[in-house]
Amino acid sequence: MNNFNFYSPTHFVFGKNRENEVGTFVKRFGGTRVLIHFGGGSVVKSGLLNRVKTSLAAENIYFTELGGVLPNPRSGLVYKGIEICKQENIDFILAVGGGSVIDSSKAIALGALYDGDFWDFYMGKLVEKALPVATILTISAAGSEGSTGSVITHENGMLKRAANSDALRPVFSVLNPELTCTLPNYQTACGATDMMAHVMERYFTNTQNVEITDRLCEGILLTVIKETPKALADSTNYESRANIMWAGMVAHNDICGVGRDQDWSSHQMEHELSGLYDVAHGAGLAVIFPAWMKYVMNHNVMRFAQFAVRVWGCEMDFQSPEKTAIQGIERYEQFMTSIGMPIRFSELGAKAEDIPTLVKTMQLGNRTLGSFVKLTEEDVRKIYELAV
Amino acid sequence: MNNFNFYSPTHFVFGKNRENEVGTFVKRFGGTRVLIHFGGGSVVKSGLLNRVKTSLAAENIYFTELGGVLPNPRSGLVYKGIEICKQENIDFILAVGGGSVIDSSKAIALGALYDGDFWDFYMGKLVEKALPVATILTISAAGSEGSTGSVITHENGMLKRAANSDALRPVFSVLNPELTCTLPNYQTACGATDMMAHVMERYFTNTQNVEITDRLCEGILLTVIKETPKALADSTNYESRANIMWAGMVAHNDICGVGRDQDWSSHQMEHELSGLYDVAHGAGLAVIFPAWMKYVMNHNVMRFAQFAVRVWGCEMDFQSPEKTAIQGIERYEQFMTSIGMPIRFSELGAKAEDIPTLVKTMQLGNRTLGSFVKLTEEDVRKIYELAV
Question: CA spacing 20 to 30 A to B189: which of A36, A149, A327, B20?
């Protein structure tokens, strides 16, 4: 096991109606002038935004608002948010939405305390400070409600890049599973795919003897595999929504990823896809992951066999472990198909002829991608081709 | 799933040699005058105490020390620690040891900021504040390095009682698995038993549909079951020690216990045992748990069958699930025996004729104990009798 630090100080406020406590929590964490950041009209239409405002007003907390975050959140709105923060002396950002809203909020939180261009942090500048961010989660997927990360697409070149820092961990996150009961099935399935991907980026590692985090990873995957079809069959199934929501958090606050090398090459390959085509992140991951698995499987067949047996319930083929390994990948594909996810370029609307562009935009050059297998530009191209 | 709050802000500093960073971390968390609290001579003999002092001195942090904590920590030393804190204006407590040292440190942290008797908090008074506590863990077991709890035995009557509060979560905890490599096998086994018990107190619940926390619980148990025999066979097996150490933390910081009713009756019944006989907490749990399981099994046979199948790898008997359930309990007993734990009163040195005393000391009266099955005084007596 590798040495590590683990620090997840977010206060999670989980369950029915908990968003009505948001005013109390903002006050407790020192917020006095709040920017409420959100996406489209659903937050307004559902009455959630009003409930949030009522709760803030009850604590005499000043607030202003900025809506309009799109999936694969763009830099344009971030610049606007930063401007508002500086003009209005905002000291607290409240994200009401899913991963895109939270990531956009984290970017604003960075830029609000920085004189330069916030994008510097997404190009590698070390984060030192940010305004406190809190979240009211409406989509279980990104895990951004408990994570250090933020992913933003810059409109200049459609570059999709990430920033990471403990300073970006939300101070509190309200997780009310009821808020996710109105999601279309496609978004629910994309969310499930994203959280499974967060686990798998950690699961496929070269670090030996990490049984505790292996088992936690497997437990999260087993849960998502069991509960997602139930949520799709009945979108109002509170219990399934609740299990999925907590699974999405533990999948990405790193409790299941510490002490081991992590990969993250599939995420980067997906970022190029959703950067170019503006497809849903989860859908892109469903397409990339099987291709990546097939390409790297022989690097450690027994790890893929373990994945097949423990996560997918396959019978171990003791004579030909690689057959078990392949079966695990097939079961992943079948599950993705069963929940309505694409698993090939054509189903996603991506095109084989764009592969050179995808590879070029990644700007990998002589560097390599990932850690399970260190991928060259040529490897990346072949993986995209396997996904066609 | 029940509504819940989850807040685990402890900064975990995990891995080889990490205790040498303790000065930096104390400074980061605002400590300027430190009480180093520890147990017996092993911390001194191993050189750990010196390394800690060197690290504090390097940051020009003032420190004083108080050793002598015993297993099942007593109130006497707590009163002494509180006196030192008040006299010396201590603002930070550093526990160097296992659960007993950490729990004693938490008690001192409570008393140092309170004008009354610290014992009030162990008799139910609400905790409002405490000095910051940090830990350098030397025994994987209690989970106190990441938990809200502290258990102390008052010498007046040998009452063993617990206090709980977010204010008692350590601000940071250093977990270096190497420090546990010199433990005698008996202590290692007691530690494994304790962390398994922490999981099982959460696992056996009446809350339905908590798959995510079920799976996390099972993952922790599977890890401890796999790694403990390896650590016993070769006490210097770093990888097993590391897995066990992180398992002990996640077993008790409540990440695997949120959103569900928890039981904790076995812990209370054990507290009476170790209060009376001063036996190791883990050993007492190994004796109580099988008896409790047998007594309550019929309340939810399928939950015990799930435990048997998922944790112990038993074949499900679909015609007679209760046979599978019983098999799971037997496997737990066999595992305990295999790691050198007692499973009956006689092996522990407890006596059947003391049962009335054990029951009486609990002072249950007309109240009930636990939540999976609400135990009356009569039930408690019968469970002790099953353990004879």
Answer: B20
